[in-house]
Amino acid sequence: MKTKRSLFAAIAACFMVLSPPAAAERLSVAAASDLRYALDDIVALYRETHPGPIPTVIYGSSGKMTTQIIHGAPYDLFFSADIAFPQRLQAAGLAATEPAVYAIGRIVIWSNTLDASELRLPDLATDPRVRRVAIAQPAHAPYGRRAREALQATGVWDAVQPRLVFGENIAHAAQMVESGAANVGIIALSLARFPGLADHPFHLIDDDLHQPLTQGYVITERGRDNEAAWSLVRFMETDAVHRTMERYGFVIPR
Amino acid sequence: MLGLGPEDWQAIELTFRLCLYTTIILLIIATPIAWWLSSGHSPARVAIQAVVALPLVLPPTVLGFYLLIVLGPRGAVGGTLESLGLHHLAFTFEGILVASVIYSMPFAVQPLTEAFNNLGRRPVEVASSLGANAVDRFLTVILPLTRGGFVVAATLTFAHTLGEFGVILMLGGSIPGETRVLSVLIYDHTEAMNYASAHRLSLLLVIFAFLVLFVVYGITRRFRVARP
User: Fold this and answer.
1) I need a surface site. Which of A194, B104, B182, B208 has the fewest CB within 10 A?
2) Is B175 in contact with A56 (Cβ distance < 8 A)?
3) Chain centroid offset of residue B68 CA
4) Chain A nearest C-alpha distance from B167 (Å)
5) DSSP letter, residue A95
6) Phi and psi (nearest 5°) for A65?
7) Contacts of B165 (CB under 8 A, 6+ apart)
8) Taking all residues of chain A, what is their mean pLDDT, rounded to a whole number?
9) Would you say A165 and A89 are in contact if contact means Cβ atoms under 8 Å apart?
């Protein structure tokens, strides 16, 4: 019965060789995409002084992350671009802490082919050089929602419609512009300050034109007993972190 | 090596594990289904054949959406697991494994059904009349005569799982070492404007996918000639 033996041996070997890695103590952080570069820097700083579990950060739109947490995604800590989402988790009984503000975000007009510092919101609808405008998906991305509000407040939302393309989250919208798929974008100031994008000028959009981008975090019900989650939250209150956040254009509430 | 970082290797290991488990599980499940499908023409068989082929036609988001609902903490399966003190399956490796098995099912069932159809029932009946029991009939008659079908089913399942994206993105999120497979990591690298990493992994997948298909077509030709 050579075939039988070798068949079973092959199957057994496959399962033995590739058993899943042992579960170590971990810290999973869900974060809004506007933090993609700032939080990477902060985690690097954090690791210099905190030998515990290395925080794993997963980026996405705040709305998508909230949906994932409601459906049981294993995140201990959630940094949202809009405090409304952590508040929604709290209402659903999925938060271990009161949602707290950690920064205020801003939106900018950015381009790597046009001089965006010369562009104003009405230009996005009228300037013939502007062919495609990338914003984040207003349905679930706070930066997209604020971009829509600013365009509505300026009275050009309807006129700009045919030029709009939607990124899944704000980093995706920025990437669409960076790659040339869209030639202008309304993106997070924190992303426009990222070294890879900072070579190109931007226009800071007046924050009277939209609701504030009040960024809030919360420790999830799952992270309640995870000491590392509390440790990272405490670290977020340090001056070093505030300086990093400010470098990326966030306003720190005092 | 190859300029790949630790998160790349982690995703490669994870993807390989997912593909391997999916292939093993599907060969075990698909064999009886394919045998049953190949043994008649009843309406029930046609219905099951259509159900098995659904993932070929449906957008991956449909499957991802339903699996998220069903396997999550409030879903029928996830909720039951939770009430038994176990963990629900959304955003876990086990969850995307279930998804992959369903998603790649047609790629295992169809080659096997065809192989069994070509084999016919005669060899099995002869073996049976010579006193071979069910296990012997399978291992010494069916398996050797349809091994080409098994190899094609296994390779296609493996390769198709490798190319999975939408279902895993919806059901798995992008959790390193758990659900961040290669396709999702490439998406992530692109979004982070980390084009060099996205490029390296993409190129790796193009080469690997070509090799797999090369092997599959090579085998199909060889076994077509060697058919009894």
Assistant:
1) B208
2) yes
3) 19
4) 14
5) B
6) -60, -40
7) B60, B183, B184, B187
8) 90
9) no
Query: In this predicted model, what pLDDT tens digit does every residue of B103-145 receive, in sequence order?
Result: 999 999 999 999 999 998 888 889 888 888 888 888 988 999 9
Query: What region, left, alpha or beta, does residue B200 occupy, with left being phi > 0 and alpha being psi -120 to 50 degrees?
Result: alpha
Give the angle A130-A170-A114 at the CA atoms, nearest 5°: 25
The answer to whether B193 and A178 are in contact (CB under 8 A) is yes
User: Distance between the two ends of chain A, CA-based, in angstroms?
Assistant: 77
Which residue type is seen at B102? Answer: I
| Distance set, CA B41 to CA B31, B44, B104, B226 (Å) | 18, 8, 24, 28
Q: Where are the domains of chain A?
A: 27-104+212-247, 106-209
Which strands make up the sheet holding A77-80, listed edge to edge? A55-60, A27-32, A77-80, A213-219, A100-105
Taking a C-beta distance cutoff of 8 angstroms, is the pair A221, A92 a contact? no
Report the amino acid identity of residue B168: I
Helix (H, G, I), strand (E, B) or coil at A161: helix
Q: State the Cα–Cα distance between residues A230 and A250, nearest whole angstrom.
A: 22
Q: Where in chain B are the domains?
A: 6-226
- CATH number for the domain whose boundaries are B6-226: 1.10.3720.10
Q: Is the pLDDT of residue B161 over 90?
A: yes
pLDDT at A22: 39
Measured between alpha carbons, how far is B8 from A206 in angstroms, rounded to an integer? 40
Pick the CATH number of A106-209 from 3.30.70.100, 3.90.25.10, 3.30.1490.20, 3.40.190.10: 3.40.190.10
Please judge whether B175 and A20 are an interchain contact, meaning their C-beta atoms are less than 8 angstroms apart.
Answer: no
Give the predicted TM-score (pTM) of the model: 0.83
* Range from A169-173, B21-25, B69-73 carrying the lowest mean pLDDT: B69-73
For A184-203, letters b (16+ CB in 10 Å) and e give bbbbbbbbbbbeebeebbbb
> Measured between CA atoms, how close is A58 to chain B, in angstroms?
7
Closest Cα in chain A to B144: A3
Chain A residues 146-205 with CB within 8 Å of chain B: 168-169, 171-172, 174-175, 178-179, 196-197
Q: Provide φ and ψ at B142, rounded to 5°.
A: -65, -50
Both structure tokens of B28: 């075990």
B74: tokens are: 């409030």
Residues of B in contact with A36 (CB under 8 A): 191-192
Tokens of B147: 């091994």
Min CA distance, B132 vs chain A (Å)?
13
- The domain made up of A27-104+212-247 has a fold known as D-Maltodextrin-Binding Protein; domain 2 (3.40.190)
